[in-house]
Amino acid sequence: MIEQRETISIGEWKVLSHTGTLRTCGLGSCVCVVLYDDTHMHAGMVHIMLPDSKQARKTAFNPWRYADTALTLLHRELVNQGAGNLQAKIAGGAQMFRHAMRQEYMQIGRRNVEAVTQWLENAYIPVVAKDVGGACGRTVEFTLPTFVMHVRTASKTIKQI
Length: 161
Prior knowledge:
Layout: E1 5-8, E2 13-17, E3 20-27, E4 31-37, E5 42-48, H1 67-80, E6 87-92, H2 108-122, E7 127-132, E8 138-144, E9 148-153, E10 158-160
């Protein structure tokens, strides 16, 4: 059987069951969230760009770009497929523009991580591992059935979480 490999871009998502790899790259201030159920072997990944959909332009609105709407939709999809005991792993949320550190609205990475963390806490989904913050971009791969997330930074370090 050929392993399923899915690549996710900004504002996209994918769900796998039983076996396969979910991958996203180009995480700067964006946050990758993986929700998974290790009992029923389901996992979903989303590449979130911004923390809050309430400030989105209504034209060409993509709910998968925003933490609040993307996580609600991903959670619903996984539950519909039979997932129950969900856990989360997150990566990303870097501060890519050092000169903008003093401006709250430019701290998108930190705000994304806060929004994701708050949503997961409100949904009673534990974050079992994370690699967030810093000033370096990331590429993430999550593999079923091992539930291992590999995080590679632009500086070529690789973490397994």
